[in-house]
Amino acid sequence: MSWNFALILFILLLVTGVIWGLDVAVWRRRRRQRVADVMAHYDAIAAGPAEVVAQERERALEEARHVPWWIEYGVSFFPVILFVFVLRSFVVEPFRIPSGSMLPTLQSGDLILVKKYSYGIRLPVIDRKVIETGQPERGDVVVFRYPVEPEVDYIKRVVGLPGDEVAYLDKRLFVNGQEVKHERADEYFEPDRMLYTTRYKEHLGDVDHSILLDERNYQALGPITNFPFRDQCEYARNGVRCTVPEGHYFVMGDNRDNSQDSRYWGFVPDQNIVGKAFFIWMNFSDLGRIGRFD
């Protein structure tokens, strides 16, 4: 969806940019010349009553200055579209959270901002990285194009980096053989499912964040898709163990029991990553949620 919008925005930018350029280079000069010709013509004649001549002169000048609506709109909208295109392509892009897979960090309906430059500068539309500015770290919340359906945007937390061994066994997370500790915090009400789930504090990488987890109930992993590098994962009754391929990342939702993530459909290629999510700029149901998050 975001890719389609970027393409539409680029086409609008191209069309309005051509109109703006032609107006500056050609049409504006022609209008000024028409105005000058009209003024010279009426300055050279003195026939008829002065009031009538003045009215005719004003009408002729108005016609000479006339700008077709499509030129007027194109010239007016070009700087606005250019600003939005540059801002959205290289600085920040807004997204809407569609589900509760990232609860309690992000709720359905949160409107968030994503830094596009955190992991590299990419050419718009073709999405090719041209300047390296950084790499995702464990604990980062990232927006990416869903590998199964690249036209759909997903948001999850980075758990495993290229080369890491990630295991999720008996609802416990291990990275490179070390258990990622979590401590019980309180009970959290899930608005999507209308029930309470235990909230835990987890330290992943350099980030302290909250997760939701029901350790009492067994979680079956399935269905599992036949994703690229599927042979890098081993599935068992109590969970999954994967080695993350180069150029890929293992991601999970903070709502561990209710998130379709790398456990089910595999790894996220680096070229699919859109940027790092960092700010909730609006939630119309709860204005108190506005602000930064980890």
TrEMBL record:
This is Signal peptidase I. CDD domains: S26_SPase_I. Coiled coil: none annotated. GO terms for cellular component: membrane. Its EC number is 3.4.21.89. Belongs to the peptidase S26 family. One of its GO terms (biological process) is signal peptide processing. Keywords: Hydrolase, Membrane, Protease, Transmembrane, Transmembrane helix. Pfam families: Peptidase_S26. PANTHER family: CHLOROPLAST PROCESSING PEPTIDASE, SIGNAL PEPTIDASE I.
